[in-house]
Amino acid sequence: MKEPIFLEPILQEKLWGGDRLRSRFGYDIPSGHTGECWAISAHPGGDCRVRGGEYAGKTLGALWREHPELFGNTGGEVFPLLVKIIDAREDLSIQVHPDDEYARVHENGSLGKTECWYILECGEDAEIIIGHNAESPAALREMVEEGRWNELLRRIPIHRGDFFQIDPGCLHAIKSGTMVLETQQSSDVTYRFYDYGRLENGRPRTLHLQQSLAVTQVPFRPHPVERETVREGGAQVTRLVTCPCYTVYRVEVDGLWTRDWAKPFVNVSVLDGEGVLDGQPVKKGDHLLLPAGYGEMALSGRLELICSHL
Ligand code: ZN
Prior knowledge:
mainly beta, 9-stranded antiparallel β-sheet, 6 helices, binds zinc ion
């Protein structure tokens, strides 16, 4: 049967979070410091439950274990991707993630973390930190030891609709005022590199300088821009990135869009608007999976989506 699997988001409080997950998306947030909406996740830190349909109430993690056919029997211990919406009221610390190999050895067999950001909202002169300006590992260490952060960190101006791929080893940080939709590997391994000297309950937060220096790519090489847009019936489909972990698309639907993805499964997040997906209403803030063998999907309405697959 053609049944999309809708998921209930899990809202996570963070010291740096705000209240826009409620004001923009209508989610029932636990407090005015809600930083993350885990929208499509089977990570132990937040395993989403199915909303309605044949699998109502089951977690995505249980579905992955008990019904591998829904995911094209791709194998693997865990559902490999995680889709989040982040609301940063404050600056996030400068961080870096390991790759699969480093995480496997040093983080109890965890996955590494490749992630990417689609900018949903930001202030007028907003910027983001991606990469650094050190030419060698020795220069990186020296600039860190001497606290030359302004010189070291690479700042980039951002606008709504911008997209950034963050490969393992890339220093990065979201700055205050920014909301992003993040598609990432299902992993929570983060090394905090620098926290602006801030205090939390009177103490600086733990930094992971040795691990950070060990995994940071030097010199930094920006990920090439891949954006490519095609018209598919009533939709404008932009492929934002293809990497070994995922492919991500931004889709603007204005009419009827049909597509047979022919993928093990597809993640769909509705960022704006409303419409009808094979007879079921979908609207801003919904997140769903199209399982394996779904066949041709028919989506009509006016919507902005981010879709991803392996
Ligand atoms: Zn990150």
